[in-house]
Specification:
By secondary structure, the chain is α/β, with parallel strands linked by helices. Helices cover about 25% and strands about 25% of the residues.
Length: about 325
Amino acid sequence: MRAVGATEYGGPDVLRVIDVDEERVSPGLLRIRVRAAAVSPTDTLKRAGADVDEGARPDPAVVPGMDLAGVLLEIGPDTPTELSVGDDVVAIVVPDGGTHGAYREEIVLPRGSVVAAPQGASYAEASTLPMNGLTARRALDQLGLEPGQTIAVTGAAGAFGGYVVQLAKADGLTVVADASEADEELVEGLGADHVVRRGAGFADAVRDLVPDGVDGLADGALLGADALPAVAEGGAVATIRGWDGSDSERDDLRFEPVLVRDAAEDHDALDRLRVQAEMGVVTLRVADVVGADDAAEAHRRLEAGGVRGRMVISFER
């Protein structure tokens, strides 16, 4: 079976089309024919071997990818599901460090990780929803803000940050989001109530708008301690990449590291996102689509920066 993976860790050029073993279906599992797999920064870290010891090599290969869209091929025995064989679906994948990643022609996943694809969306568009959408949803849930409270969002033009802006507005929050001059119109279009310039000076700009500080912060741009002055005393901070704030000087804040793998089988949350995509509450943004043979180019462009929306690898023939 074809997949896009690497037999050594390194830059984008280590990615190529490889053969991998078929995965087996058992109770509780579904087999999916992958049509499109979205590319995320986590995928580039996986390809580069960021989470392995120096000098280690994949055994036998590493296949990245955390979210996909495709067609349901097979339902495991004794597996309750509202889906039928032949349905278009989206799914989130927790890669195993080996060949179990979304960049493969077929994959077997827990039923909780798979829902119907949003109606009217292409495979490429649908593939951009699961991972970033669930991460954004989980960030907001962990912050626990109430309608009428205020949230600041860094990295608002990115995939995670954009979903946070849109879902926060749907939750009744007031949103202060960052953007470069070039992205200001984009972030306003996502629904941000206030847009401030990204980078140095973010916290001061937020305080100019909200003198007492915002109730919560979703730090998609990984500003870390530099963004914390924007948050009110006793506020909450949702972080990605596992930062828990223990090395910060703000002991009055509640830090909430967001790990999407903890929501990977939250079927109800993923299906709610599907409904919100159909309703236009969230926007499925595709930067570009490349074939499996050009996956390295997708990684190269993502790492170069400036990509708005998700790069997508297509497995359609």
